[in-house]
Write a structure and sequence with these properties.
Blueprint lengths: L4 H21 L12 E4 L7 H11 L12 E7 L7 H9 L2 E12 L9 H10 L3 E7 L4 E7 L7
Parallel strand pairs: 1-2, 2-3
Antiparallel strand pairs: 3-5, 4-5
Length: about 160
């Protein structure tokens, strides 16, 4: 029997790729990249810490809080039914957002406390000057809706 060590090394590489895929399934799927600065809104004890850490690991930066006044590349907004006026909150998230930046609106999944109906997001986004480009299962308890400014001035 011949033992081929090159195949063993390939298995190790697959393991590393699997770990990268795990990161990709969280922060990478949200489109975050190394070096980006992400501002976080709506932090509370119900947020998904695993997703938060994945964003920080991928970007290499801690997320900055709501008090930040510097320009950021993206915003993450943890939003629950009853948190107030969604349009006003989205406008707050745009204050420091760089041109071309996106807002990820994270809402509790259907059936969970604080669930937000998709129609509410669809109604609020255009009023704030945004449009929903995609919706994904961001993590076990939260749905993520990607909100971006219309390109070329379209609304």
């Amino acid at each position: 029997m011949v033992f081929d060590r090159s195949k063993e090394e390939e298995v190790i590489e697959v393991g590393t790729t699997a770990e990268s895929a795990a990161d990709q399934s969280m922060a990478g799927r949200l489109g975050f990249r190394p070096g980006q600065v992400v501002q976080e809104f709506g932090y509370d004890d119900d947020v998904d810490d695993e997703l938060r850490l994945a964003v920080e690991d991928l970007t290499g930066n801690e997320m900055v809080d709501e008090e930040n006044q510097e320009v950021v590349d993206a915003a993450v907004y943890w939003w629950r039914d009853g948190d107030g006026d969604l349009v006003d909150s989205l406008m707050d998230a745009l204050t420091n957002l760089a041109e071309g930046g996106v807002v990820w609106l994270l809402t509790p999944k259907s059936g969970r406390p604080g669930h937000v109906e998709p129609a509410e997001i669809e109604d609020a986004a255009p009023t704030a000057g945004l449009h929903a480009t995609s919706t994904i299962s961001a993590c076990s308890d939260w749905t993520g809706t990607r909100l971006a400014s219309p390109r070329n001035g379209r609304k």
